[in-house]
Amino acid sequence: MSAVRSLTQHVSLTQTDSGLPLLKVDNAFARAEITLFGAHVLSYQRHGEAPLLWLSDKAIFDGVQPIRGGIPLCWPWFGPSPARVGLGKPSHGFARICTWTLDGVSDHVDGSLIHLSLKDSEQTRALWDHAFELELDILVGKELSLVMTTRNTGTTELVYNGALHTYLQIGAPEQVTVTGLGEPYFDKLSGAMASQHGPLAVDRAMDRIYQAPEAVIKVRDGDRMIEVINGGHDSAVVWNPWIENSAKIVDMSDDGYLTMLCVESTVTVADGLVVAPDEEHSLTTVIR
Ligand code: TA6
Question: By the 8 A CB rule, do 203 and 243 touch?
Answer without folding.
Answer: no
